[in-house]
Amino acid sequence: MIRINLWISIVASFFILSQIDTKNIGVEENVSDLIDSRDDFCGYYAKDKPIVYNKDNLHQYIDGGALIYIKNGFNKLITHELIKSGDTLSSITIEIYCFDSLKDAKDIFLYESGKENFKLPGGAFCRKSGGLLQFHKGKYFVKIMSFGEEKHLQNILVEIAGTIEARIE
Fold first, then answer.
1. Which residues contact 83 (CB under 8 A, 6 or more apart)?
2. Alpha carbon distance 7, 4 (integer Å)
3. Strand locations in 2-129 (E)
4. How far, in Å, CA of 137 to CA of 34, rounded?
5. Does the model's pTM come out above 0.70?
6. Which has the closest alpha carbon to 161: 69, 60, 41?
7. I want to staple 73 with a disulfide (CB 3.0 to 4.6 A). Which of 78, 85, 104, 112 is the partner?
8. From CA 64, how far away is CA 53, in angstroms rounded?
9. Average of pLDDT values for 46-62?
10. Is the separation of the CB atoms in 66 and 29 below 8 Å?
11. Are 91 and 148 in contact (CB under 8 A)?
């Protein structure tokens, strides 16, 4: 009887362990480290806490486009909105996508941007167009979008990108 109970316990343990998604362990913490809620970029600061998406709920953020990300090794997305005190017309949204590999992140970058325009100070390939700046480094693909009329937002996007790029190991 003891051997049967021991055998059942072992089988149950293997079953439980097989259900754990080890690829995603620690990913959220690593992605979250790339954005500090105390960051201040020319008066733009975090509106709220970052929102984290995974494979199960990415479609809530990218309706209709999530499948291409998931098929290309997507793990987590963290979004963060920055606002400026007293300015209700402009904001900045940061999206940091974490993939299984550098190749996956670069493939999505090339899919989204079409080409690489220039390099950030740390060497990451980057594309900037209007109020959008995109880059990839390591297993990360980053989009930074500005919404508003301020022309100086372009420089702030580059500053934010440089800060995030420097935090990626």
1. 44, 45, 47, 90, 91, 92
2. 5
3. 44-46, 51-54, 74-84, 87-99, 118-119, 125-129
4. 12
5. yes
6. 41
7. 104
8. 15
9. 92
10. no
11. yes
Provide the 10 A C-beta neighbour count for residue 6.
10
Angle CA 141–142–145, to nearest 5? 145
Cβ atoms of 130 and 145 closer than 8 Å: no
CA–centroid distance for 137 within its chain:
11
Whole-number Å distance between alpha carbons of 38 and 36: 5
pLDDT band at 121, cuts 50/70/90? confident
At 66, the amino acid letter reads A
Instruction: Supply the pLDDT for residue 32.
Output: 64
Tokens describing residue 152: 């100086």
Between residues 99 and 29, the one the model is more confident about = 99
Tokens, residue 31: 């992605």
Between residues 128 and 1, which one has the greater pLDDT? 128
Task: Evaluate if residue 55 carries a pLDDT over 70.
Answer: yes
CA proximity to 48, closest of 107, 87, 93: 93
Q: How many residues does the chain have?
A: 169
**Residue 18 — very low, low, confident or very high, per pLDDT cuts 50/70/90?**
very low
Give the per-residue pLDDT at 19. 37
Q: If you count DSSP H runs as helices and E runs as strands, how many of each does the chain have, helices first?
A: 6, 8
